[in-house]
Amino acid sequence: MNLKQVEWWIKAPARARVVLYSLTMSLTTASVPLSMDQAGVLRVNGTRVSLDSVLFAFHEGSTPEEIAQQYTTLNLADIYAVISYYLQNHDEVVEYLQRRKTQRAELKEDVESRFDPQGIRDRLLARKSPVTD
Predict the structure, then answer these.
(1) DSSP track, 45-60
(2) Helix crossing, 90-114 with 76-88: angle to 10°?
(3) CB within 10 Å: which end of the chain, N or C, has fewer?
(4) Whole-angstrom Cα Rg for the chain
(5) What distances in angstroms separate CA 11 from CA 1, 6, 7, one per listed residue?
(6) pLDDT for 94-129, tens place per residue?
(7) Is this model's pTM higher than 0.70 or not?
C-alpha cells in the first residue's frame, strides 16, 4: 500500500474497507500422464487402463470421480489431466481413437477368420459333457 491508500484505510468506515491478500502460487507445467505400450495403445502411466477406456467412460457421462471409482488404479489428478488433454487436442485424439477402432475391427476379423465364432457355445458344451453311447 502506498501512503494515500493507508490514509484512506484509516479514514474509511469498516464496511468500506477491503482486505487485499497476496497469494503465492507456484506455476508448474505438468506432463500428460500417458505412455504408448508396445502394441501402440496409449495407457495412463503406471496402469493398464487405456486412453480409450477413460474417454469412453467420459463420453458415457461419467464424471472424473466416477471414472476413478470404476478404475481404482487411476488417481483423480491423472483422470482430469487425460480429459483436459483430450479437450485441448480434440482432433488429434479423435484421429487416434479412429485408428484404434480400425485396428480393433481388423483384429476381430483376423481372430474370427482363424476361430469360427459360430456354434462356439455348442462346441464348448459338447466338450464339457461326456458322450455316452
Answers:
(1) TTSS-BHHHHHHHHHT
(2) 100
(3) C
(4) 28
(5) 15, 9, 6
(6) 999 999 999 999 999 998 888 877 788 888 888 887
(7) no
Q: Which residue has the cell 497469494?
A: 23
Q: What are phi and psi of 35, to 5 degrees?
A: -145, 150
How many CB atoms are located within 10 Å of the residue 43 CB? 19
| Residues with Cβ within 8 Å of residue 82, at least 6 apart in sequence | 32, 33, 34, 44, 51, 54, 55
Cell 500428460 maps to which residue?
Answer: 32
C-alpha cell at 16: 468500506
Q: What is the pLDDT of residues 37-59, one digit of tens each?
A: 999 999 999 999 999 999 999 99
